[in-house]
Amino acid sequence: MNPVNYLYLAALLFTIGASGVLIRRNAIVVFMCVELMLNACNLALVAFSRMHGNLDGQIIAFFTMVVAAAEVVVGLAIIVSLFRSRHSASVDDASLMKL
Amino acid sequence: MTDLAAYTTSTGEAFQFWVLGTIAVIGALCTVFMKKAVHSALCLAGTMIILAVFYLANGAYFLGIVQVVVYTGAIMMLFLFVVMLVGVTAADSLKETIKGQRWLALLCGLGFGILLYAGIGNASLNEFNGLGQANAGGNVEGLAALIFTKYVFAFELTGALLITAAVGAMVLTHRERTERAKTQREMAEERVREGKQLPPLPAPGVYARHNAVDIAGLLPDGTASELTVIKTLRERGQIRDVSNEAINDLKALEQRAEERLGREEEATK
Amino acid sequence: MENLIALLVVAPLLGAAVLLCGGRRLDAVGHWIGTVLAAASFVIGAILFADMLGKGAEEREMTQHLFSWVPVEGFQADVAFQLDQLSMTFVLLISGVGSLIHVYSIGYMEHDERRRRFFGYLNLFLAAMLLLVLADNYLLLYVGWEGVGLASYLLIGFWQHKPSAATAAKKAFLVNRVGDMGLSIAIMLMFAWFGTFAFGPVLEATGETSEGKLTAIGLMLLLAACGKSAQVPLQSWLGDAMEGPTPVSALIHAATMVTAGVYLIVRSGAIFNGAPDAQLAVTVVGAVTLLFGAIVGCAKDDIKKALAGSTMSQIGYMILAAGLGPIGYVFAIMHLVTHGFFKAGLFLGAGSVMHGMNDEVDMRKYGGLRKYMPVTFVTFGLGYLAIIGFPGLSGFFSKDKIIEAAFAKGGTEGWILGGVALLGAAITAYYMTRVMLMTFFGEERWRHAPTPSPAEPSVEPAAETHGEHAEPHPHESPSSMTIPMIVLAFGSVFAGAFFGIGDRFIHWLEPVTGHAHGHPPVSALTVTLSTVAVMVIGVGLAYAQYGRRPVPVVAPRGSLLTRAARRDLLQDDFNHVVLVRGGEHLTRSLVYVDHTLVDGVVNGTAASMGGLSGRLRRLQNGFARSYAVSMFGGAAVLIAATLLMRAV
After folding, report:
1. Which end of chain C is less enclosed by CB atoms within 10 A, N or C?
2. Quick one: pLDDT band at residue B90, thresholds 50, 70, 90?
3. Could you tell me the CATH number of the domain that includes residue A57?
4. In a mutagenesis test of the B interface, which of C621, C629, C630 is the best target, namely the one with the most B β-carbons within 10 Å?
5. Where, by residue number, does the polypeptide cross the bilayer (chain B) (predicted)?
6. What is the domain range of residue A48?
């Protein structure tokens, strides 16, 4: 098997995650889909690291994880406060920015 | 470790890839299409663990462990907490409300995927150096050497980012009480003023037989009253309708009572 | 000495400023201030003149540089004055005749409560005209040119309570604007082609400029001259300008304003010398106007309008002479000066007659006034003899020279121009004799003057405005009015002989304008004799018509030509039909095009943009997921673009 297949898998997962972001209305699930996309990227980075024979790809994946952790903390806090004020976790309900 | 440097992987790894890869894709799809957020979270956790295995297979031992500990262990648990906090809402429905959104999403997803595949296929990725040399002194040591030399500023910045995120989350969720809490008297007066529901809400349960919170109280004509059940259960649709059951129970009770009375009658004869 | 030049302009300008800003407290002395400052200008002019006479002919030009007006690299506009023999002639004429008219106005405007303001305007008029003739470049000349236009507007409309006066002022201003446009275009052309508009460099540069360019500039200058000097086709304002007070008419016709066009053409002689086509146009305009004005003058019963027609005709002579080139420049200026004397005298005389006749202007209601106004009669009569070219008087010398020069043009043109000039002389004699006879001779028609019926169209409107049909009591005017008339009469009599005998005037002006002796196809004596002959014929005709037969008090219907001439040869009708109607049609069609085509395009664009944005607006639906689709699609496009670039 050619390790390029890892990249194909990453692309597939990324696309599924992106579609989920577009389709789902529950903010929490949308957020999970974003995490899925991040993980797909990480997989691709790890595969790159192996192809090039150095560890820089892994370092970047590591940073991605850290940033994702920070992002999850803030994002979930936003969802919670949104739910508190609007009694709904739907992303469509927060649609005031329009004419 | 030497096999990592090969142009092709070992048969074992190939077998592992195809099996686990399939499960990972199914998990991802389930994440998207599961109706309940809890199920989505669980599927995602599964996918992430499989990804951790793939990291290990690719020579990223440190990341594989971190993936399990941080992602599946910490982040996904955070998700679950929030799911519990928010509860079940109408947003869980998979019914599309924006016109054309689903088709557009599908079109974009397909186009994006095909283009991505074309891009990967187009790139000349046939050379594999493998990580044998890079991991020679140990994966963790190798990473550490890079993080604390080449990437030290980025590392320090991520530290600052994490602290900022923690403070930010606290600021977002923390709510200072700026006004006095309403007293019971004030709430009662407010209810009278609104004039919608003067007395306290009716209690759930039917007679003394069904007093569980998921069973609606019956109105005099025998139909169930939704008012008696709490909102979360109502939205989840977890109300047990017991009106027929209750009426049947009543009939049975009467019958039994008559039988006993009849027997007693007979006995008196 | 040079430093005095600016004072020529400053003195009357100061008068205008003081009188117009001073307010009512100057009412009692305002006319004296104005007159003294105008006279001061004349005295300075006389001092400069004396100084100039003391120098050799080639060293007489003086310049004074006041300040740089617009100093930009490659663009120099200075406020600088140039006083040479030509300017000197004009300065003396303007300030001299102007001062006399000031003196006359003291008496004439005595009962007008806005006399101070009137003198302010008169001073402004003088200042603007002096600036015009003293400027050493075309831009400063243009300032004076516009100043003259402004002052004429203010003075013609001085009795603004009369709608006719206000309209006449507006008309004069508007028609002048057409001419001003010509001058401004000419100046722009000069700047574009020569890079300067100072007289010296421009006139020197004409030598190496193509004829086409010179013709363009020349024609534009001619348009300017037509406007200011009331030449066909921009002549229509002059007749209506008679609505102003009579001294204003005298000032406009004799000393200022209408002479500006002649000055401009003579000053720009070098340009016209290099452009024969433009010169031909000038002579044609002059010849046509000469006959036009003369014919109009024959038919008018309003004494001032008859004189206005005469002015038009005489300026036509000057323009004709100026168009002849070096053989005519000097005679144009000479006729201008002599005309300044006798026309001022005639107008002041007419004003004096009106003064004594309750402001009646219809000559058919005059008659036999010589007994009642002896001084006016004598001075007017001398002016009359001068204008018809009675041998020995000033008009004889100057007009005869112009006719001679016209013949000297040579070829068919010379015969035609000379013939027209001769014919004009005959008509001049005719209409001036008519004015003279109707005013001062014959029976006293003003006694028992019938009340004019309102249905009679030929009655001049001016008679009705005053509405005094009581019998007038003709009397001589006060000395403040008669003295200027006497002085001017002296000028009318002797100026021509003084200038003409021994070619004095030619020697005086030659260094500036140049002079070439023409050679008429017939001898000069023949021309002179025929001029006198046609003059006698004109006088005789007029005498046969107006002297031997009684003049009807109500104008007869007259021939077609007479009726047309009474309407100024249909000039206003022509303007109305061609310009006003044409303009209306043009604007209407332009408005139509604007509404349908231009507005259609603009509104259509706006509507389609509005519709498009109305649809695009729906993209802004507020749903984050819709925006996410756009982002995702954009990312796909980016990948596609990257792949495409790699493939290429």
Report:
1. C
2. low
3. 1.10.287.3510
4. C629
5. 15-34, 41-63, 69-91, 103-120, 151-172
6. 4-86
